[in-house]
Amino acid sequence: MRARDLLAAFPTITIDTPVSQAARLLAEQDLPGLIVIDEHGRPASILPGTQVLRLAVPGYCQDDPALARVIDEEHADHFLDALAGRTVREALPPRPRELPVTDPDATVLELAALMARTHSPLVAVMDEGRLLGAVTLQALLDRVTSL
């Protein structure tokens, strides 16, 4: 089985996309992450949903989870309000990591190794400089566990 067999069309965003819009897209389409493209339409980064949370959740709650419990429920339900006016650029890690990109001929083991190595829930699939879509962790696991 190859990447082309697991490939799905996938939405893209740019580094200047409002991160609140990215969060809505993640939620509405039940996605593990998004492909961030550059001005030429090529993948520049992957934005996992967890990176959106890192930007929205106050640092003191990340450092000491017990502090999150002292926030009353009404205010806790609105933690994503912290994303207002912020862009995807701010949610990306400061140091670029290996980009999880492959070609349509990659095997499922190659895809799994790339996801594991890059800590990415999806892999962008390119062919001749064109983004074809992505393979998600869910699609990969669904396929290999049903064999």
TrEMBL record:
UniProt keyword list: CBS domain
InterPro entries hit by this protein: CBS_dom (IPR000644), CBS_dom_sf (IPR046342), Diverse_CBS-Domain (IPR051257)
Keyword Ubl conjugation: no
Keyword Oxidoreductase: no
Protein origin, superkingdom: Bacteria
Domain CBS, residue spans: 1-65, 94-147
Gene3D superfamilies to which the protein is assigned, alphabetical: CBS-domain
Any one Pfam family match given in the protein's UniProt record, by short name: CBS
Protein name: CBS domain-containing protein
Species of provenance: Spongiactinospora rosea
